[in-house]
Write a structure and sequence with these properties.
By secondary structure, the protein is of the alpha/beta class. The protein has seven helices and six strands. The chain has two domains: 48 residues, RecR Domain 1 (Helicase, Ruva Protein, domain 3, Orthogonal Bundle), CATH 1.10.8; 124 residues, Dna Topoisomerase Vi A Subunit, Chain: A, domain 2, CATH 3.40.1360.10. The strands form two sheets. A four-stranded parallel sheet has the order 4-3-5-6. A two-stranded antiparallel sheet has the order 1-2.
């Protein structure tokens, strides 16, 4: 059966999204087909305005409505701590926890040689000038606990050392058991990291 062009075009566009395969793209398309036109118009408008109504913060590279972003322009934030994250979505997760009040720096990725992503593809050059301030006392490397995240964190630490910017401490997020998790269900790596990241009571 040959599908109408409008349906085929939407399926092809949805397939380009990460994690969406051909069958999921088809299901989503036919789901949308059963929605009222007003809902589809709202959906299309949200897509169209996604880039038009957002900017990249010139200080931290976060996605925002204004430049500088809400966090960078908030005078109540602790400007002596900068937390380096891979993606803007990571900021959302950290902010939701409510335990961090410092500033951020978004790399927009991690070093991944297999995907042809090197240090030059990340927002690293604009991090170094921020670290030259005498007010900085800590840099938190909150990249993901993956091979790419670890490689990126090590690269940043080495870069800072080479530039002689070691007048502040560099920390890495502790890793280990989730709250409410049972020891018997923890894998070896998680358990090892839980012991490595333990703190004095």
């Amino acid at each position: 059966m040959r599908l109408p062009k409008a349906i085929t075009r939407l399926i092809e566009q949805l397939e380009k999204l990460p994690g969406i395969g051909p069958k999921t793209a088809q299901r989503l398309t036919f789901y949308l087909l059963h929605n009222p036109q007003t809902e589809l118009d709202n959906f299309a408008a949200a897509f169209q305005n996604l880039k038009r109504e957002t900017v990249i913060c010139s200080i931290c590279n976060n996605v925002a409505e204004t430049d500088p972003c809400r966090i960078c322009s908030d005078i109540s934030r602790d400007t002596s701590i900068i937390c380096v994250v891979e993606q803007p979505l990571d900021i959302l997760v950290i902010e939701r926890s409510g335990g961090y009040t410092g500033l951020y720096h978004v790399l927009h990725g991690a070093i991944a040689p297999l995907n042809n992503i090197g240090p030059d593809q990340l927002h690293l050059k604009d991090l170094l000038p921020r670290l030259k301030s005498d007010t900085i006392r800590e840099l938190i490397l909150a990249t993901n606990p993956t091979m790419e995240g670890d490689a990126t964190a090590m690269y940043i630490a080495k870069l800072i050392e080479e530039k002689g910017l070691n007048n502040f401490k560099i920390t890495r997020l502790g890793r280990g058991l989730p709250v409410g998790g049972d020891l018997e269900y923890a894998d070896d790596i998680t358990l090892t990291r839980a012991f490595e990241g333990r703190k004095e009571l």
